[in-house]
Amino acid sequence: INGRSKYPIAGIGAFNFADGSQPSVDQFKKMESLSWGIPVSRIIN
Could you list the residue range(s) of the whole structural domain that residue 23 is in? Predict the structure, then answer.
């Protein structure tokens, strides 16, 4: 199950924190290369 792929097309706009804010450019550069997959066990349990 995919949560978010590496290098999202929407760029920094693809990431929103729980409080509605977005990451800084430095935070985004660290986050964008990560794959945000959701383990199936998380959905089933």
Answer: 11-44
